[in-house]
Amino acid sequence: MKALYDDLWISTPEFIEETPDQQRMMHGFMLRHPRGNLVISRLGHPQDLEALAELGGVMRHYLTHWHEASPIGLTLQQRFNSALYCHTRALGPVSRVLEPDATFNFAEQHFGDFDVLPSPGHTPGSTSFLYRSPYGKTYLFVGATLTRAHGRWATVRSEESNQADLAQTLSHYRTLRPDVVLMSHTWGHLSWQEVTLEQWLAAIDDAEQFTLDERESSHAHRPQTPA
């Protein structure tokens, strides 16, 4: 794992094999919260478990959508006694891999400062998480709702995607004021991006015009304009 900020780490990248040029990467993040360490998204490398142990273990694991469910999540539960959280609409597919400890269905605030924001569109149960760090930056974890691909912002289309829901989610994103956007999927780009307000609004404008279709591996790395 690599430290990004005083209270935030990123996992070792996991490359998705079906991408021809191996430019599609998945990442997870560890947030050092005053109440305990939180893992967000997916971890794919066993060596990150040792890093987590050195950093104090894991109290909770939050999934941004069900595609992040993996056997290593079970290892997190067993080794660190961590609790797994996901959206209610992700419960079915997640349960085929892991057993969630709790679900959510609406916007909630955990610990009084960690915002759980349902963000349907990429999948019905997609969720974003917003945290205002005591070190001064506001982090927004967007999962695969937004991504960076070859210098462009884009949305990501899956078999379950719903364009109307996604449009509402992007509209809600416009009301947020992140300093750092953290993505669990990217194509040929770092999985985090610092933004000003102007850059953030421009990123949403860009993403409304371009989408990546992960249903077709031959096009999984190519921005496309929505139909």
Give an overview in words.
With 227 residues, the protein is of the alpha/beta class. The protein has one domain (2-219): Metallo-beta-lactamase, Chain A (4-Layer Sandwich), CATH 3.60.15.10. The chain is 21% helix and 34% strand. It is built from 5 helices and 19 strands. It has helices spanning 46-54, 71-80, 91-95, 163-173, 197-209; strands at 2-5, 8-10, 14-15, 24-26, 28-33, 36-41, 60-62, 83-87, 102-104, 108-110, 114-118, 127-132, 138-143, 146-149, 152-157, 180-183, 185-187, 192-194, 211-213. The strands form 4 sheets. Strands 1-2-5-6-7-8-9 form a 7-stranded mixed beta sheet, with helices on one face. A 6-stranded mixed beta sheet has the order 10-11-12-13-16-18, with no helix packed on it. The radius of gyration is 16 Å and the shape is globular. 43% of the residues are buried. Mean pLDDT is 88; it is low at 217-227. InterPro entries: RibonucZ/Hydroxyglut_hydro. This is MBL fold metallo-hydrolase.
